[in-house]
Each structure stands twice: as C-alpha cells, then as structure tokens.
Design goal:
Largest sheet of chain B: 9 strands, mixed
Distance between the termini of chain B: 35 Å
Strand order of the largest sheet of chain B: 5-1-2-6-7-8-9-10-11
Strand content of chain A: 5-15%
Order of helices and strands of chain B: EEEHEEHHEHEHEHHEHEHE
Shape of chain B: globular
Number of domains of chain B: 2
Shape of chain A: globular
Structural class of chain B: alpha/beta
CATH architecture of the largest domain in chain B: Alpha-Beta Barrel
Strand content of chain B: 15-25%
Bound molecules: iron/sulfur cluster
CATH class of the largest domain in chain B: Alpha Beta
CATH topology of the largest domain in chain B: TIM Barrel
Strand order of the largest sheet of chain A: 5-6-7-14-13
Number of strands of chain B: 11
Largest sheet of chain A: 5 strands, mixed
Oligomer: heterodimer
Distance between the termini of chain A: 32 Å
Radius of gyration of chain B: 19 Å
Radius of gyration of chain A: 25 Å
CATH superfamily of the largest domain in chain B: Aldolase class I
Number of strands of chain A: 16
C-alpha cells in the first residue's frame, strides 16, 4: 500500500528539497534582548515563512520540513547535541540560564499530550480567540503555510487535499482525512516550535469517532481508511532525522491504543485495529505502537498485536491497566485521570492534557548500589540481613543525590503547543507535576546479592576479602569463581525465589526511598523500571560486578534478565519478573523478551505468543516489550550495511534502522541475541 | 526412579496444542542421518564444547574434582568463557514432575501442556511412563518415533492425551538404511495408535530427495489415511550441535528439496522451522 510514497520517504528523496535557514537567530535575539516567548514565536514564524510546500507522490496527508539547520548544535551538560533547528539562545545565554535553573535534557517541553479531542473539534481559530500576541502570530504563520500547501495541491490537481486544507487547521475536522491532516499539522508545528518527544497519546480514542462516522455514512470504505492511515503514519516518518534524539528513532512519537474510558469500559475500536494493520503493512519505525490491556482483554487483541510483533519492529508494547492504574491511584492521581493514561515516549506513563510530569529526570543504577555496598560494607557486615540494610541505605542516598539536582526547574515556554493545555503556562506545570526516576540493572543487582548471600554468608565458601579482590581484578586469576558466578549461580529469570525475593526487595526499597519525597514543583516521585540510554552509561561507572559481569559488559535493557543469564525460558522469566510489587514502580519500563525470528514463521507461533503475553498480563506484569532478532542477519548487516537499509531493531523504548545506529548500540543488540528464546 | 533429560524447553510452540513445556529425554535407538539433535542419541551425559568461545586456556583439564567431570575428562566448572557445558542431567521422576507441575497454572490457562520428547522418550520407558502417569493435572503429549515395544506403546497410550508420531519412510529397507532400524514396528504402533482413537498428529520430516520424494509421500499418505499430518520443512543449515559434540554430520551435503504436493494427503499442512 502506498508503495511509491513509502519508498520515496525511505529513500530520503525529500531531503533534496531541504535548505538551511542561514539565520543566526540566537545572536539576533540576544542583541534585541527578546523574552523567551518572543524568541520561540519569532523563530517559528520566520521558518514557517521560509518553508516551501512539498507534495510527494501518492501523498494526501501533507506537511514536510524543508528548512533545517544542519550545523545547529545544542549545548548540554555532557557536551553538545545536533538539533537541526537554529538555536534561540547563544551559548553564553544558555549557560547563564543553566546556572540558575535545572534544565531537563534539551530544555523544551517534552513527553506531554495536548487536548487532541478539542483541537479536532474546534480548529485553531477557536484557540486564537484567547491567545496572546505570540500564539496568534504563530497560528497565522502556520495557516499561511498550509494555505500555500493548498495552492500547490491545486496546481497538482490534488483536489481532496485542497478541500481538506480549506477546513483544517482553521476549523474543526469533519472527516477522518481532515482529522488526520489536523493532527499532522499540530504534530509538525509542535516539533518545529522546538518541543521534542512529541507523542500522540490515545490516538484511537480521540480520532476513532471520525473514522467510525465516515465508515458508517459510507464516505470511506475500510481499505480507503487504511490507506489514509498509512499516509498519516508515513507522514510521521518524514522528518524524524531532524528531531532531537540520542539516535534517530528515539523521538518519542508513540501512540497508545485500547485501554478503558473514564468509567472503566474497554476502548479498543475500529481505529485501534487499523493502526495495527497499517503498521504491519508499512514496516517503518514510527509511530511506535502501545496497547493498553488488562486481565479481561480478549485474546484477539493479543493476536492482532502478535501479528505486528512478528514483523520484527519491536512493537507493539503492552501496558497493563490493572497494575498501572492501581499504581497511579497510590501516587495520588484521580481515578478518571488514571484511567486515561497514555504512553509518553518509550514506556513512561503520562496523563494526556493534565499531566506535565517530567518522567525521566534520572536513573538509579542498581548495579552501582551493589558495587558501593560490596566495597564499602561487605567486610563490616556480620550477617546478610545487615548487609541488605546497607544496600537500602545506599539506595536512599543515591536517590537523594538524583533528586537534589532537580531544583528550580525551568522549561522553555511553548506559545504554540501550550495553547492546547488547560493551564495558564504549561511550561510552568499542570495538574500533575511528578517526577519519574528510572531504575537500571535490576537483574545484575539481584544476581549479585544472591551470590553474596549464598557464597559469603550461607556456604561461607568465599571470604569478603577474597571476593572483593576477585571482582577488583576483573576475575583475572579467578576463572573458576567466574564460571561459577556466571553459569552456575541463581539468576533472576528462573522463577527461583532465592534471587527473585532479593529483586523484589530492591524494588520495594527503591519505591520506599522515593515515598514521601517531593519535587520542587510539589509533585511526587515515581519509581520505574526503564533503562533508556543508562544501560550503556551505568556500567561505565563501575568495574566488574559480584554476579560475574565483567568490566565493560553491558546491563540488560529495561526490566530484563542479565545479558548472560541462562534462563529456563519465557514462563520462568515472566514468573520471576512478576514477583516484585509492580504497582509501586509504574513510571514505566517493560520486561523485555527477545525471540528468534524463526518463532514467527508459522501462524501457530503468532497465536501462541498472544497467549504468552496474556499470561504476563494476567500474572500482574506491568509492561511488556517483545523483540524479534536474528543473529546472523545482524552480524551480516554490520559487515554489509548497504544490503540492509531497512532492517529494524528495537533499542530500549524505540525502534531504529540498525545500520544507522552507532556501533555500541549495534553491539548491544547483538549481545542480547545470545540467549534469545 | 531416575532418567536423563537433556533439555526442558519452555514455551515450545510446535509440540502439541497450545504453548507447551517440552522435556527432552536423552537417548534414541534410531540414528537418522538428518537428525538435528545429536545430543539426543546417547543416553549418557555428554560434554558440549563451543570452539568459537574457547580461549584455549586449558583450565578445564586441570584440578578436576567432580566424579562426572573426571569421566568426561574436562571440568566445565572451570570454564569462564562459556565454551563448555553439559548435555544431560539426571532427574528423579518425582522431582521432574514437581518442576513440570509448577507450570500447570500457566499451561492450563493457555490451553497448553507438557510434551515428552527426545531423543526417543520411550527409550527410557519406565521413567517416561512414570512421569506421564503423575502429570494428572495438565494436558500431556508425547513426541515419538514410534519405535517402541508393543506393551510400552500401549501403556503410553493410556497416560497421554495427544500423540505426535513420526513416519519418515514407508519402505522398510530404505528406512533401515537412513535411520538404522526397520519400520515394521513403527507401522504396527501407528495402527495401534489409530485404533485407540487418541487425538494425534503424524509428522513427516521433508528430507530433500530422501523422504520428500513423491513415491515416499504417497506411500505414507496411504498408510496414514485421514490422520492429520504435518510435513516438516527441513532446515538447510548444517546442524551446529555435531561439532559441539565433536561428531560428524552424517548427511553431509543436503540436496535440493522437491516440490511437495500437499493434496496427496487427506489432511496435511506444511510447517516451516
Ligand atoms: S576452560 Fe574453557 S576456554 Fe579454557 S580451554 Fe577449556 S573449554 Fe577452552
Ligand atoms: S528419531 Fe529423532 S532423535 Fe532419534 S535419531 Fe531420528 S531424528 Fe534424531
């Protein structure tokens, strides 16, 4: 479907129409001493004016970035990032801002979901009525741009595009095509304003009614609707290389399907189904698809999801309403809001419209916690219980360290995107202003604790001194110990209470440490099980670990067994990872299972995978990500990247084209395949 | 009672109805030239050695303490590079049953069950039957070559819910030259299976130019009649496990697969692995 459009975009033919803005906005703004809102608006308006309409073959959902700034860089603590948008602050100015404030990542609004229902119903002119001068200018510039698109469409005889652009974005949408075009315009503008991790929220809930109406009145047939949806999905892939992200793909463009309404009734609708089909058809990395499920979700939903998993994009990801909603309630979210949650970027939980939580302010390294306890306290501890108390103490210390940095948060204002939130200034916060902290390396930590408990305190087969020496020597000269630790010791993922109970303890201790703490905006702190890029950063802070992980070896992604644990299989993994009290750690972060792609050669494999997913949800798991891997293909792709331009792999909460990744990301993906199921 | 098991695979998707846990019993009276599971042949515990992971440090040959490692001549406990491992573990029937029943809630919820496979599970008949007999609260299947004594086979039919049985070659002489045994006993057991009305599935491995010939498949089609059949596409990659056991893959080169006409069977489908 839409093969011509798809290949046009994947071959990056539209890049030929791009040109740099050539303007040093930052210097100009600094000289004029413009206020932040003025800067954001000014850049947006002037770039909109420079934008050239670009229509691609077969395309009916339009808007593509043509103005970029290939040399732009963005200054952050650890160095610089490319952003492809000219900066609005000079380096000096930005450093001054950072002296006074905590700046999260790129400093812009991220991971929030605007009121798409209202946008679709009313159109931008409705919002213009109460907007300030900056917002008005931006709306006008955007409408002017879409008018130029309409003219170009008319020249090319694409009359349905012309008709669509007469309605949106000015007025509310009245058809499925208009709704999709409106969402694309807002999405485009949100990125262009400077925001990032621009996520789509509960797409089937707010857009589904437009589809259903068109189908019911015969305006569209199902195939036509699917084609429009594919067009829209491709639109989300046009500019991704320009978005602020660690690697291309990590852009937070997720959409969430299913779940329940405010009263708790299931929501999986016609559009939810079509989204899964469209994604399966297109095999592209955006949008990343999430499905909300619960213990009563019918198996057909899992089957549809599994058919998409089989394609090998690393999504859909499943999130369990039973666990997450319960957890949100405990964190003070109101029931109706909790029931309306969506997935922000990778796996983080956010409430559309009212939630302005900063869901990824930092990460606790469980591996480092153990490393510190091991070195600082093992010799002192008289019993394992005593040692564990030290571990808890360090968890407390480390989380306090993470939170201490986050004072006086400042977010760059969003005169455009901010209009779609029911708050005076959404950059200053909304109804929920909680913070989220990830937790990495849980399996490495739990396995280490189990080994310490077993060998030092129970069997007494190794002394604290000798153990520390071995770990500090990276096990060189301690090969038998290393072999025992790696291959013949309790590992999380084998349904073995000896180690799983310790994992549960670590998780509770993490949740306890955050309990009662407050962010500088008055919010609570949520514990999570995601790893994000920390799975590569955290191991760099420590040497070898007591579980036999050698120096330089990675941690598992998200919530998963250690990279070299020989696990019994998916049932045991699922059982092990459901033991911690997951509703206390609902910031997000999926259990991640890797399957060999051969698993999906036959329909049976797909049907049965659906049952496995359902099992995890019924057992109370919180979130699940399923990846398909083929070791030989990946190795070959490293050698011959030109042969695999479209090979997709899942990283931590996003999917990417394998050959576009830095080698260290590629290597980690390959390492993960070792014990694929 | 004890038996030797070489693997317990969770979430097996081709070993019976629903997702399964499959137990691989070590030892097989056949020696199919195309076999992908050579560790299933011998009933003894064996050593796996992954050459590409071996650093040649030699530690596995020093200070061997364990009885079993002494017999094997190398100690896998000393190998930190993951190059050495053991194939085969001794299990008490009772302990194995306990482990398997720990999966029962999940398996019952998914409509799956436990499958005994091998090697040839009936090559350790008393152990296999004992385990099956005790697995009362979960669906039980067996994956067998059908090469077993009549009494063992009949007793097995009493304690399983589903049988997956191979029929590889219809001609007994050809059967013998490729698997090491004649097939009369197998075909007799198939007749017993059919007479028992036990739900079952016949598997035919499609070995290029050996079993996948029209002649062989039509003969098998006549034998099995209306029984459901699964034709198993042969994985063309040379099995890696022979090298790990330091054995030769007896089939050597694999020929081009024939085009198979499913319609010669009353009730067959193709399975790609
Ligand atoms: S201990 Fe392992 S790596 Fe060393 S020689 Fe033996 S098999 Fe090879
Ligand atoms: S019967 Fe099965 S396990 Fe035994 S040799 Fe033949 S293929 Fe291998």
């Amino acid at each position: 479907m839409l093969e011509e459009l798809r290949s046009y975009i994947l071959k990056k033919k539209h890049h030929a129409f791009r040109s740099p803005s050539g303007i040093d906005f930052a210097a100009e703004f600094a000289e004029k001493r413009l206020n932040p809102r003025a800067r954001v608006a000014e850049r947006f308006v002037r770039i909109c004016e420079m934008e050239q309409p670009l229509l691609m073959p077969q395309e009916r959902i339009v808007l593509t970035r043509t103005v970029t700034d290939p040399n732009a860089i963005f200054i952050k603590e650890e160095g610089e990032d490319r952003i492809d948008l000219p900066c609005i602050y000079t380096k000096e100015e930005w450093l001054q801002v950072k002296e006074k404030h905590f700046i999260h990542e790129a400093g812009w609004l991220s991971n929030v979901i605007p009121d798409y229902s209202l946008i679709l119903e009313k159109g931008l002119l409705f919002f213009r009525k109460n907007a300030d001068e900056y917002s008005c200018k931006m709306i006008d510039a955007l409408i002017d741009l879409t008018d130029r698109y309409a003219m170009e469409a008319e020249n090319q005889g694409k009359m349905d595009v012309v008709e669509t652009l007469k309605k949106v974005p000015r007025y509310g949408a009245t058809s499925f095509q208009e709704a999709l075009q409106m969402i694309r315009i807002v999405n485009f503008a949100a990125w262009l304003e400077g925001n990032y991790h621009v996520t789509l929220g509960r797409f089937d809930v707010y857009c589904g009614p437009y589809l259903e109406k068109d189908l019911a009145t015969g305006v569209l047939r199902e195939e036509e609707a699917l084609e429009l949806l594919c067009d829209f999905f491709m639109a989300l892939n046009k500019d991704t290389d320009l978005y602020y992200s660690i690697q291309r793909g990590d852009n937070g463009q997720s959409l969430t399907l299913g779940g329940v309404d405010a009263k708790g009734h299931p929501q999986f609708n016609m559009l939810s189904r079509l989204c899964l089909l469209a994604s399966k058809e297109l095999k592209v990395i955006d949008p990343k698809i999430n499905i909300r499920v619960d213990k009563n979700t019918p198996v057909e939903v899992y089957e549809l999801g599994s058919e998409l998993t089989a394609v090998g994009l690393g999504f859909p990801q499943y999130t369990n309403d039973d666990t997450v909603i319960a957890g949100l309630l405990e964190k003070g979210y109101e029931l109706e809001d909790a029931r309306n949650y969506a997935i922000a970027a990778c796996w983080e939980i956010i409430i559309p419209v009212v939630g302005t939580d900063i869901i990824n302010v930092g990460a606790l390294s469980f591996a480092k916690v153990i490393d510190r306890a091991f070195h600082e306290y093992l010799k002192k501890a008289n019993s394992f219980e005593e040692f564990l108390k030290y571990v808890d103490l360090i968890i407390m210390e480390e989380t306090e360290k993470i939170l201490a940095r986050i004072q006086n948060i400042w977010v760059i204002p969003s005169p455009f995107y901010g209009m779609f939130f029911p708050f005076e200034d959404v950059s200053k916060g909304g109804k929920y202003n909680n913070l989220g902290v990830h937790g990495t390396g849980i399996a490495t930590a739990a396995d280490s604790l189990a080994a310490i408990k077993k060998y030092v305190f129970e069997e007494k087969s190794i002394s604290a001194e000798a153990y520390i020496e071995a770990v500090d020597a990276d096990f060189v000269g301690y090969e038998s110990l290393l072999a025992k630790l790696r291959y013949d010791s309790p590992k999380m993922g084998n349904d073995d209470d000896f180690v799983d109970d310790l994992a549960a303890h670590l998780m509770s201790s993490f949740a306890d440490a955050l309990e009662g703490k407050r962010s500088s905006r008055g919010g609570q702190i949520r514990a999570g099980t995601g790893s994000a890029m920390y799975y590569l950063w955290h191991p760099e802070e420590i040497g070898a670990s007591p579980d036999g992980r050698r120096k330089g070896e990675g941690l598992g992604t998200n919530y998963s067994p250690s990279l070299y644990a020989r696990c019994n299989g998916p049932f045991s993994i699922v059982k092990s990872f459901c033991k911690p009290e997951l509703k206390r750690i609902i910031n997000g972060g999926p259990l991640t299972l890797e399957f060999l792609s051969s698993m999906f050669e036959n329909p049976e494999g797909i049907e049965k995978l659906a049952l496995l997913v359902r099992t995890y949800i019924k057992l109370g798991g919180h979130q699940l990500q399923l990846n398909t891997v083929n070791r030989e293909t990946l190795r070959d792709a490293q050698k011959h990247p030109e042969r695999y331009p479209q090979l997709v792999v899942r990283i931590w909460g996003w999917s990417a084209y394998f050959v576009e990744l830095d080698k260290r990301f590629q290597d980690h993906v390959i390492a993960r395949t070792e014990y694929a199921l | 009672m004890t038996g030797i098991v070489f693997d317990i695979k969770e979430f097996a998707v081709h070993d019976g109805p629903g997702p399964r846990v499959t137990v691989f019993l070590k030892g097989c009276p056949l020696r199919c030239k195309w076999c992908h599971n050579p560790e299933g042949h011998s009933s003894e515990i064996e050593l796996f050695w992954k050459k590409e992971k071996c650093t040649g440090c030699g530690l596995c040959r020093q200070d061997i303490e364990h009885e079993l490692c002494k017999q094997l001549g190398r100690c896998w406990h000393h190998c930190a590079s993951g190059a050495l491992s053991i194939s085969g573990q001794k299990w008490e029937a009772e302990a194995l049953v306990e482990r398997l029943l720990s999966y029962a809630p999940i398996l019952n919820d998914c409509g799956g069950g436990i499958t005994l496979s091998g090697g040839e599970p009936l090559f350790q008949p008393e152990f296999a039957l004992e385990v099956l007999k005790r697995l009362t609260t979960v669906h039980r299947a067996i994956e067998t070559s059908g090469y077993a004594d009549e009494t063992v086979f009949l007793r097995m039919l009493e304690v399983v819910d589903f049988v997956i049985m191979d029929i590889k070659l219809a001609d007994s002489d050809v059967h013998r030259s490729y698997t090491g045994v004649r097939n009369e006993e197998i075909l007799d057991n198939f007749a017993r299976l059919k007479a028992s009305h036990k739900p079952h599935l016949i598997r035919v491995p499609l070995i290029p130019q050996i079993t996948d010939t029209e002649e062989n498949l039509s003969a098998i089609a006549r034998i099995v009649g209306d029984s459901p059949v699964e034709l198993l596409e042969y994985n063309q990659l040379t099995p890696t496990k022979y090298a790990m056991l330091q054995k030769e893959f007896p089939l050597g080169e694999i020929a081009q697969p024939s085009k198979v006409d499913l319609s010669i069977f009353q009730n067959a489908k193709l399975l790609k692995l």
